[in-house]
Amino acid sequence: MARVQYLLELVPKLMTVDRKTPVRTIQDQILRHTETMVQEQLLYKVKKLLTDDDNLQQIEDFVKLPIWLERLRKENHNEDETCDLQTDLLLTEDHVFRRVFIGPYTARV
């Protein structure tokens, strides 16, 4: 845990880390400045802590869900309808996302 704490302090001093920053880039920066090779597994943990990937990323991606579903419909549209995407967006009374189901035409009931 001490190593994670050290990296949590060091990495922001070396570079700005967001969710799109590759772990390999972080590893290269640390190697360049400290001449120490840090395991990627440890860096994934550090990146997750620095970006708070769990909650913020889910919120950002949820907003994009209707756009992705529409793109899927457009890309898989076929004139003879051999491929038909059925989507099911369920929200609770509190407007909390539940699921998306996407299946081929043959799976329709």
In short:
The protein has 109 residues and is mainly alpha-helical. It is built from 4 helices and 2 strands; from the N terminus they run H-H-H-H-E-E.
Topology:
Blueprint: H1 2-14, H2 23-34, H3 40-51, H4 53-75, E1 90-91, E2 97-99
Antiparallel strand pairs: 1-2
Helix pairs in contact: 1-3, 2-3
Q: Give the N-terminus to C-terminus distance in angstroms.
A: 52 Å
Structural class: mainly alpha
* Mean pLDDT across all amino acids: 76
Spatial extent as radius of gyration: 21 Å
Work out the oligomeric state of the chains in this entry: single chain
Measured as a percent range, the helix fraction is: 55-70%
**Strand/helix succession:** HHHHEE
Strand order of the largest sheet: 1-2
Shape: elongated
Low-confidence stretches: none
Q: Provide the number of structural domains.
A: 2
Number of strands: 2
Number of helices: 4
Report the β-strand fraction as a percent range.
Answer: under 5%
For the largest beta-sheet, the strand count, sense and barrel status come to: 2 strands, antiparallel
